[in-house]
Amino acid sequence: MPETPVPRNADRINAALNHLTQGFAAFSVWSTLPNGVCKCVKGVDCTSPGKHPIPKDGFNAASVDPERVATMLKAGSDPNYGIVWPLGDIIVVIIDVDGADWVQRLKELSVTRGKLPATKTTRTPSGGLHLFYIWPPGVPVPEGNTLHGFVTRFPMKGYVVGPGSAINGKVYAAVGPEEMAVLPVSWVEEPTQKPLIVVSDEPSAYEMPDRVAVLCADQCHAGQATR
């Protein structure tokens, strides 16, 4: 597969502004030199080159104002940009699908949880995916920041680098539809039905009997049974 050309800074600005029209807020993120070294003051010692926020207050500086976002991204360092979903009635969760075995893990989850619908997706330079889903209405948002072992970003609780940004010449590329699908309830709720019989060492639990009595088929007297 041929490499995706690295967008110009003007392209990144336009991509960030387009995300504002989709409901996201955006802010500036450090980019890298051609050799992959971060342009921030830490340089070669940076542990998150091309991924961490430029503003001092981090992703909390994310704005929905096109003029403010454009000003942040017109800096001479040709910054990348990050996106977050603001707090509001609609909740969007961003699932960071990554890791050496993420393809197999998604396949296994699709068997038990059902297939995920196509949605807005970004392919990351590491080969993973950012999946953008609308959280099912009426379903409580979990306290943590993971879903089935994958890192998640809920509104104003985290950010991802936006498509069109690049690290060491490798691009965050939009590979799915622009629309966001609703995450299936089967992916966010655990079964609520409890088993009829619970096998446990606890004295308060029900236990399977050693033998099961079978009633006679020809109207046996009460209490009579064959074993």
Q: What is the count of helical runs?
A: 3
- Straight-line distance between termini: 68 Å
Percentage of β-strand residues: 15-25%
How many beta strands in the DSSP annotation?
A: 12
Query: What class would the helix/strand composition place it in?
Result: alpha+beta
Poorly predicted parts: 193-200, 202-227
Helix content: 10-25%
Helix and strand succession?
HEHEEHEEEEEEEEE
Write the layout of secondary structure elements.
Layout: H1 9-21, E1 25-29, H2 66-73, E2 80-84, E3 92-97, H3 102-113, E4 121-123, E5 129-134, E6 146-147, E7 150-153, E8 160-161, E9 166-167, E10 170-171, E11 173-174, E12 181-182
Helix pairs in contact: 1-2
Describe this entry's structure for a reader:
The chain has helices at 9-21, 66-73, 102-113; strands spanning 25-29, 80-84, 92-97, 121-123, 129-134, 146-147, 150-153, 160-161, 166-167, 170-171, 173-174, 181-182. The chain is of the alpha+beta class. It has one domain. Strands 3, 4, 5, 6, 7, 11 and 12 form a seven-stranded mixed β-sheet that branches. The protein has a three-stranded antiparallel β-sheet with strand order 1-2-8. The model is unreliable at 193-200 and 202-227 (pLDDT under 50).
Keywords, please?
single chain; 227 residues; alpha+beta; seven-stranded mixed beta sheet; three-stranded antiparallel beta sheet; 3 helices; 12 strands; 15% helix; globular; disordered C terminus
